[in-house]
Amino acid sequence: MTVDRALLTEITFHVRFAETDQMGIVHHSVYPIYFEEGRSAFSREHGVPYSSLEQMGYSLALSELNIRYLSPARYDEVIKVRTWIDRLLSRGIDFQYEVLRAASDELLVTGQSKQICVNRQGQVRRLPEAWIAPLKRKAGIE
Amino acid sequence: MTVDRALLTEITFHVRFAETDQMGIVHHSVYPIYFEEGRSAFSREHGVPYSSLEQMGYSLALSELNIRYLSPARYDEVIKVRTWIDRLLSRGIDFQYEVLRAASDELLVTGQSKQICVNRQGQVRRLPEAWIAPLKRKAGIE
Amino acid sequence: MTVDRALLTEITFHVRFAETDQMGIVHHSVYPIYFEEGRSAFSREHGVPYSSLEQMGYSLALSELNIRYLSPARYDEVIKVRTWIDRLLSRGIDFQYEVLRAASDELLVTGQSKQICVNRQGQVRRLPEAWIAPLKRKAGIE
Amino acid sequence: MTVDRALLTEITFHVRFAETDQMGIVHHSVYPIYFEEGRSAFSREHGVPYSSLEQMGYSLALSELNIRYLSPARYDEVIKVRTWIDRLLSRGIDFQYEVLRAASDELLVTGQSKQICVNRQGQVRRLPEAWIAPLKRKAGIE
């Protein structure tokens, strides 16, 4: 089911020095970590903290990741990460992302990732209702 | 121009402990670094070392990255990374990757990335002939 | 010259998922990055941003790093990093750090690092007066 | 008990591009990971693989880390890491490290780390005899 983009979380933070490479820009492998930070913030903000899913014995395993790099970010810049749900499925969640330069709102990177719910044995499972319910309510899904 | 998959480089190495996360598996943000290792080895092996491209004043900037995660890798396992050129363009290179468990040849992750040639000012440029010539010869491209 | 510990910067942030390892705790190699974040925040806050030192053609190269690990941090916890100058030298700065669990102020990690000022050729140089002056004024050093 | 430095493991590998920072050198937070790679190789080579310690329900938790940075490493250089045991204790191991440029044997970084044996609850425990015995035999310790 497609969820309204209004259900969106924005975070801002400074680029870390260690995230740069010898091209003088943020290394491309850092953006999956920015996206993950976006998901963590999204889950806290919308009442479905990822840490509580883990306490219930489940994880969201990444199955797919797609990134487009438009413009580089640099050390000490303030970066904005927008995270929203593209699709909420019974056994997983698809997220989308935009990374922007906070000062100008210039779009730097876009991405999407697919996550599937697995138990501690790595078997695919339905997202536990107790965890996902607050999000469904916000999204107007019964 | 499409390049024969025969022009392929394989490397093997152990998974590092620091590459694992609290799920007990290699974190998904590590695979772009494995791919990059694949490109480095590919470029050395085929007579077009990436470090020499940089000495000529050019870089290959990532413009797109797509990854599919099939099965997790774990600490201390020996991993095999296969890297080959999907398309060789005048201003860039598209690479493809397979990451396998070396012991069983089980396929763990597949990926592709697009790189574009930029100069030190970040402007898109043709791949310098002096750098790319050995690869073209191997690939049978005039 | 020894600088008053009052000249201290505190930052707080969430532990990132990617920073954990398969022991379920923040990997020990992450704390040097937390320290660096502390230095970045310290330099911004005290009017001597590190990025402006780099624009003047200088860097602070780490020459020594010592860390003691007392207790582990975990995913999604809020962490506090305290950073202060231990010694301000003509050609370098010694920093000290404390990492605490923000909720309880439990001390998790302590550290110190020595930085030396180098130019773009990697040669040791005096810290440029134009950069360090605001810090000296705050510290009451003529 | 002090162990002979002859019980030493050397590994060599290429510096990864992602390990560089905007100073054009390997970021200082990477060396703890090189040291860890040294410990992993040491433990495999001497018949006490770290993964088997973990299977017995124990981990080696880092309690202290000290690093001196003498000279920088750069992308694609071949690096040599020497790892040896400084002290073998009933509840822990102290390791020492040297990182060298393989081409010239120039010493780049030295370090030491202290590890303590903990069980899955994080309690300090004796190193299990079944794991450490092969190492003690090699070291001539009864």
Summarize the structure.
4 copies of one chain form a homotetramer. With 142 residues, the first copy, chain A, is of the alpha+beta class.
Give a description of the structure.
- Four copies of one chain form a homotetramer.
- The first copy, chain A, has about 140 residues and is α+β, with helices and mostly antiparallel strands.
- The first copy, chain A, is built from three helices and five strands.
- A five-stranded antiparallel β-sheet of chain A has the order 1-3-4-5-2.
- In chain A, strand 4 and strand 5 form a beta hairpin.
- The longest helix of chain A is centred in the N-terminal third of the chain and has 15 residues.
- Chain A is globular and about 45 Å long.
- The model of chain A has no long low-confidence stretch (mean pLDDT about 95).
- Chains in contact: A-B, A-C, A-D, B-C, B-D, C-D.
- At the A-B interface, helix 1 and strand 2 of A face helix 1 and strand 2 of B.
